[in-house]
Amino acid sequence: MGKPIKRGRVCTVLMCLAGAVTAGSCSASSSAANPEIGPVPRHTKFDPANFVDPTTSTNRFHPLRPGMQWVRGGTTEVGHRKIPHQVTSTVTDVVRTIDGVKVVAMIDQSSDAGETNQVGMDFFALDKFGNVWILGGYTEDYESGRFTNVEDAWLGRATGGDPGVLLPGHVDLKTPRWFEGSVVAGRPGSAGEPALLGLHRCVKFGCFDNVIAVREGEATEIDNEFKYYAPGVGLVDNVPHGASLHQDTFELLNYVELGPQGLAEMSQVVLDLEAHAREVSPKVFGVAAQSHRNTDRDPGAQRQANVSQTIGDRP
Q1: Is residue 183 within 8 Å of residue 161, measured between CB atoms?
Q2: Phi, psi of 268 (to 5 degrees)
Q3: Residue 237 CB neighbour total at 10 angstroms
Q4: How many degrees, rounded to 5, is the angle at CA 84 between CA 83 and CA 89?
Q5: Helices and strands, counts by H and E, the chain
Q6: How far is CA 22 from CA 8, 192, 272, 311, in A?
Q7: Tens of pLDDT along 261-313?
Q8: What is this structure's pTM?
Q9: Rg of the chain on CA atoms, in Å
Q10: How far is it, in rounded angstroms, from Cα 250 to Cα 313?
Q11: For the purposes of burial, counting CB atoms within 10 Å of the CB of 96, is it exposed (0-12), middle (13-18) or buried (19 or more)?
């Protein structure tokens, strides 16, 4: 989850006193009051030599292990109405190369009021510093169960995009605001910055310790939402802020690791989606090499066949 180019993102850094950090122990200060966090997001140097196999999943706040699946739900605003909103995100074993870097596909399947409204995939990369990058993606919109249009389609710099870091490998309150990426070169894109650390956060799925909160938004107006990440689990909660267009709220409802059959099914969804992308976005996907399943992974690292097992303990 976490598309950095679709819905806006963040601006203030919350500084905490020394000692145990809780939601009540921090106070806010503007970025202008903290010269370490400037208004211009930092672009992390992109060097293909620094990247590793993304499925090694060394960023504990943004896991990328194939077969991991999250269901998150809440509400979104359509017009002036709040309606139920749910997103199922799955790390598949579909891989490709973008800008000389191996990436893995995560698919998001979204529904409003129980009806599919969006299906998309993001291509994530991982560098040796634990930074999770987004190097490409594709999203389709639906209405009444039928495809209507393409919201975004890009595969790295060759298609005019500007890759960025979705979540750094290490985040503390002195981490400068970082550039998350942009679909269109020259556009401000999206950015993130640290907000809170060491939180205890409870959602419908359960409670988590040592949670970090990241403020996200458009790079020029970073006040869209707070995203809460739990170690070993990833995104567990999203709280909208002033610049959020649809005021999306969602929290973790379920978290499983798919068995080989379930993983194969979700990976095929990605390959089918890409096949459609080659038809409707030929300038991006029609000229690119096709993605493929990474069948060289160690099957012993997967759960037993045809079984989806819940990860973590419920309260």
Answers
A1: yes
A2: -70, -35
A3: 24
A4: 135
A5: 1, 18
A6: 27, 21, 45, 25
A7: 999 999 999 999 999 999 999 999 999 999 999 976 544 444 333 333 333 43
A8: 0.82
A9: 19
A10: 20
A11: buried
